[in-house]
Amino acid sequence: MTLFGYRVPMMASLLVWCVVWEIVGRLDLIFLLPPFSDVLAAAFNLVQTSSWQSATVTTLRAFATGMALSIVIGVPLGVLMGRVKIADDLLGMWVNIFSSAPLSAIVPVLMILFGFGEKTIVAAVFLFAIWIIVLDTRAGVRHISPSLIEMARSYGASRPALYTKIILWAALPEILAGIRLGLIRGVKGVVIGQLLVAIVGYGALFETFSRNFRMAEFWALTIILFAFALLIAELIERAEAKVEYYAGARQ
Amino acid sequence: MGATALRNGPSPVPAPIDSIVEVRGISKTYGNVEALRGIDLDFPRGKLTSLLGPSGCGKTTLLKIIAGLIRADGGTVAINGKRVSAPGPERAFVFQDFALMPWATVTRNVAFGLELRGTNKAEREETARRYIAEVGLAGFEDKYPHELSGGMRQRVGLARALSVDADVLLLDEPFSAVDEQNRRKFQEDLIRLRTNQNKTFIFVTHSIEEAVYISDRIVLLSPRPGRVSQIIEPEIDRSGDPERIHRDRHYLDTVDEIWQGLKQYVE
């Protein structure tokens, strides 16, 4: 973006919107929208409370567990579907359905299965994140040049060596892209799960703030969550950039 | 014919003394396309034999059957008298599209065959360095494939095949993805390499000039179904300057002769 011939950095537009928020908030048009400075102050206070800290620990733990599970199960499943036609025929339909289905509708069922606790949240993260990881891994494995596999075979690669030394590496750019998208979906999963269960972590906080019309804190929590989601997406993107050079180099 | 020794017909060729690869009655069908029918061939030890023919004659299929990468429908392949049906350490393959690992350095790519065999790191890197120098890539050990030109990438592929110390090198149109200048240079290097390395080369190409230029023996395959139509042994002196071969009378005669034979398959 350029303004009067000057290059304006990307963050500047964010600043403009903060100013707009501040002005609208100060005009006191809708009580749902307190001034941005109030939100910032609320955020500053919020992070010092023990309720926020323990909610964050709970949320992060559920998120990390759910993500770890979906990566550990999703990547091998995607590799399997990419390599074995029968597995692809059997599972392909379901993976595609789940990856585009409105999964929020299933969360109440998870509550019945796993109870009103952290297990449900972990299951929600897992359910939101895994499908795109499976699909991207599968696409990456499908993309591997057949001659690279023939090369490994002709030089005597055992089956495990073929997978660990060739297939996983050759599909790595797609696997990482899948994990990045999975992380973003996982954030949705953790928030929706907690909101529906409403007595765990951020869900409990959101519930408290909105029920008591503590809008500044409500927004502060939302912003913290958004910032967190953007941050992890950014981190994975950096890792992706490191393997990008060979995503294009493969034919 | 004078300059060349000719043997005609698809009938079994009298076995030359000391053949390292013996192909007997190999046939292969893809769906309802018969790619190869009853191939009998012997590849003499220490020689460079080219499989030459128009596209669709099954030359790459035959090479991959010898490599153990494709299973034949019938017939046998024997290396050093032993029947084989899977890849083995006595054969090394050079791929048309190089088949390098883009995430690995030149050294690791060259050493990959040894890595799969469990050779320890120091030893295999030492061997790799020697062959990287042998193919003229000294100084590029730590580069990645995407930093190299097509010609250099294929040199990496060749060094990888040399480093496993196989008796037979199988080359599948190795220069077809390399630009013309590099190809000429590469062909000259291959002639030089053959005199240094005591190995048997089986070389697939669709270029008549290339086949005549580098081969001790040329197997002409006819298409649909692929069959041996002729075996030619160009008697060209390759001891001197490789540049001179292109103007050699025997070279030019042989190229012309093969072209006359292949013409009928070109629409």
Automatic annotation (TrEMBL), chain A:
Q: Which organism is it from?
A: Mesorhizobium mediterraneum
Protein name, as recorded: ABC transporter permease
- Tell me the Pfam families matching this sequence: BPD_transp_1
Family in the record: Belongs to the binding-protein-dependent transport system permease family.
- Residue ranges annotated as transmembrane are 6-24, 60-81, 93-115, 121-141, 162-183, 189-206, 218-236
UniProt keyword list: Cell membrane, Membrane, Transmembrane, Transmembrane helix, Transport
Report the principal subcellular site. membrane
What InterPro entries does this protein's entry cite? MetI-like, MetI-like_sf
Q: Which GO terms describe its cellular component?
A: plasma membrane
Q: Which GO terms describe its biological process?
A: transmembrane transport
Q: Domain named ABC transmembrane type-1: which ranges?
A: 56-236
The organism's superkingdom is given as Bacteria
**Subcellular locations according to the entry:** Cell membrane
Task: Specify the protein's topology with respect to the membrane.
Answer: Multi-pass membrane protein
From TrEMBL, chain B:
Q: Which InterPro entries match?
A: AAA+_ATPase, ABC_transporter-like_ATP-bd, ABC_transporter-like_CS, ABC_transporter_ATP-bind, P-loop_NTPase
Provide the coiled-coil residue spans: none
For molecular function, the Gene Ontology terms on record are: ATP binding; ATP hydrolysis activity
Is ATP-binding found in the keyword set?
yes
Q: SMART domains attached here? A: AAA
Q: What SUPFAM superfamilies does the database record attribute to this sequence? A: P-loop containing nucleoside triphosphate hydrolases
Q: Which residues form the ABC transporter domain?
A: 21-248
Keywords from the named record: ATP-binding, Nucleotide-binding, Transport
Question: Gene3D superfamilies this protein is in?
Answer: P-loop containing nucleotide triphosphate hydrolases
Matching entries from Pfam families are given as: ABC_tran
Identify its protein family.
Belongs to the ABC transporter superfamily.
Listed name of the protein? ABC transporter
Task: Specify the taxonomic lineage.
Answer: Bacteria, Pseudomonadati, Pseudomonadota, Alphaproteobacteria, Hyphomicrobiales
